[in-house]
Specification:
Layout (H helix, E strand, L loop, with lengths): L2 E6 L17 E2 L2 E2 H11 L5 E6 L4 H11 L4 E6 L4 H9 L8 E6 L7 H8 L8 E7 L5 E4 L2 E5 L6 E3 L3 E4 H7 L10 H7 L4 E5 L10 H12 L1
Parallel strand pairs: 1-4, 1-6, 4-5, 7-12
Antiparallel strand pairs: 2-3, 6-11, 7-10, 7-11, 8-9
Helix pairs in contact: 1-2, 5-6
Bound molecules: cytidine-5'-triphosphate (CTP) and magnesium ion.
Length: 223
């Protein structure tokens, strides 16, 4: 069974507000992209990697891979206008023989090997997709403008992270439709009736959105 990883790194990082795309913000003296790429390269579970790079940052992305000696990197494509579009474009470089695709956000640099293992295992038990999830600490409410209209049952809610793992054919099919509303790949698979399992996520998989997140990840990295 061959497992391909798609590293979604093509975003602009507007909320981080750096002078470069988020994948090239500095983390521990390296471009942020290097951290997750190195972990995918070193993972026993991953056979090959496709990077979705920000427009005009394809060459620097390849250079990061070369400097890491990341021989599993098979292709580096130019990302699209949305995350889903970037993943769809990356999938064109994943061969038909690939059994499983693991999609990961470069914005989540601290990728534990245990989580990769945890999201891959259930695919052998008939699940179409697997996502890492964390319970919510806060009470969650639905708003219309600023008026609270509903308090949601927290026990049934989770926050979902990446890496998300899918049967390759299922993900390919899910990415053929309307991608405009999707904020993750799982939602597209769910919308087509795919069976997606939630497994334990990891707080270290925090998504770097703003400068505070970057400082948090930096401090965890230094531990
Ligand atoms: N992503 C991507 N292609 C896009 C947009 C996002 O590959 N067109 C990737 C980002 O690089 C990131 C992940 O999807 O690794 C999650 O997106 P997000 O955290 O929103 O990153 P950005 O879109 O870069 O940040 P912002 O929304 O603040 O501009
Ligand atoms: Mg974004």
């Amino acid at each position: 069974m061959s497992v391909w990883a798609v590293l979604a790194a093509a975003g602009r990082g507007e909320r981080l507000g750096s002078d470069r795309p988020k994948a090239f913000a500095r983390l521990g003296g390296r471009p942020l992209l290097a951290e997750s790429l190195e972990r995918l390269e070193d993972s026993d579970w991953i056979d090959a990697i496709v990077i979705a790079a920000p427009p005009e940052w394809e060459e620097p992305s390849i250079l990061v891979a070369e400097e890491l000696g990341a021989g599993k990197v098979n292709a580096c494509i130019t990302g699209g206008d949305s995350r889903s579009e970037s993943v769809r474009l990356a999938l064109t470089e994943v061969p038909e023989e690939a059994a499983v695709v693991l999609v990961h956000d470069a914005a989540r640099p601290l990728l534990p090997e245990e989580v990769i293992e945890r999201v891959l295992a259930p695919l052998g038990e008939g699940w179409d997709g697997v996502v890492p999830a964390l319970p919510l600490a806060d009470t969650v409410k639905r708003l219309e403008d600023d008026r609270v209209v509903e308090t949601l049952p927290r026990g049934q809610l989770v926050a979902v992270q990446t890496p998300q793992a899918f049967v390759a054919a299922v993900l390919r099919e899910a990415l053929t439709g309307d991608l405009s509303q999707a904020t993750d790949c799982s939602s597209l698979v769910e919308a087509r009736g795919g069976r997606v399992k939630a497994v334990d996520g990891d707080p270290r998989l925090l998504k770097v959105t703003d400068a505070e997140d970057l400082a948090q990840v930096e401090s965890w990295l230094a531990e």
